Amino acid sequence: MRLYTGKGDGGATDLLGARVDKDDPRIALLGDLDEATSTIGLGRARAAVEVVQTALLTAQRDLYGVMADLAFTDDLRPASQRFAAGRVTWLEGETDRLTDTVTLPPHFILPGDTVAGATLDVARTVVRRAERGAVALHRQDGLGNEAILRYLNRLSSLLFIAARAEDAAAGVTPRPAKAARDPDSPG
């Protein structure tokens, strides 16, 4: 079995229902989502907290649902491939459940105190990029399912609190983004 076809060598690729350029905004968003789920997978591989691992696995599967929705043109998408708005409710519940287990500091933090937490913070930034791509596609009338926008917005919150849960499980308090002011320094 060959893993390549050569059909995309000219810079075009297939949606389910149309052939588009590889720099089409929908294809760019699909690429960002692919990167997001891969980065979440890296975070899941590093995670020590079981509830975090489970939530991340489910979120990865949800992102494949989002990608399936986006892979179809609107006129060919079967109802079974439309990303369900109820997944946003699940995500909110998981985020709330994790938030109840972590004490957040009253300041912005610097990612990087644990490998798992830092990896999930990177995943959060990739999801934010995908969210910006989804917003741009929506503004061009290319995203008919607003549940995707809500899901990506909430997913970054889940990844933030999952990173803090991993930091807490490792016994680490995240460092403040702003260094403590030295009273002897000028300015």
Observed structural traits:
elongated, 6% strand, Hypothetical Protein Ta1238, Chain: A, 187 residues, mainly alpha, two-stranded antiparallel ribbon, 5 helices
Describe the secondary-structure layout.
Layout: E1 12-15, E2 18-21, H1 25-46, H2 50-71, H3 86-99, E3 109-110, H4 115-139, H5 146-169, E4 175-176
Antiparallel strand pairs: 1-2, 3-4
Description:
Helices cover 57% and strands 6% of the residues. Strand 1 and strand 2 form a beta hairpin. It is elongated and about 65 Å long. With 187 residues, the chain is mainly alpha-helical. The termini are far apart. It has a two-stranded antiparallel sheet with strand order 1-2. It has a two-stranded antiparallel sheet with strand order 3-4. It has a single domain, classed as Cobalamin adenosyltransferase-like (Hypothetical Protein Ta1238, Chain: A), CATH 1.20.1200.10. The model has no long low-confidence stretch (mean pLDDT 88).
Query: At the first level of CATH, what is the class?
Result: Mainly Alpha
Count of helical segments?
Answer: 5
The overall pLDDT, averaged over residues, is 88
Task: Give the total of domains.
Answer: 1
What is the level-2 CATH architecture name?
Up-down Bundle
Which of globular, elongated, flat, extended, rod-shaped describes the shape?
elongated
Give me the secondary-structure category: mainly alpha
Neighbour order of strands in the largest sheet: 1-2
Biggest β-sheet: count, sense, barrel? 2 strands, antiparallel
Percent helix range = 55-70%
Beta-strand level of the residues, as a percent range? Answer: 5-15%
Calculate Rg over CA atoms.
19 Å
Any idea what the CATH superfamily is called? Cobalamin adenosyltransferase-like
Runs with pLDDT <50, length 5+? none
Distance between the termini: 66 Å
The CATH topology is Hypothetical Protein Ta1238, Chain: A
Total count of strands = 4
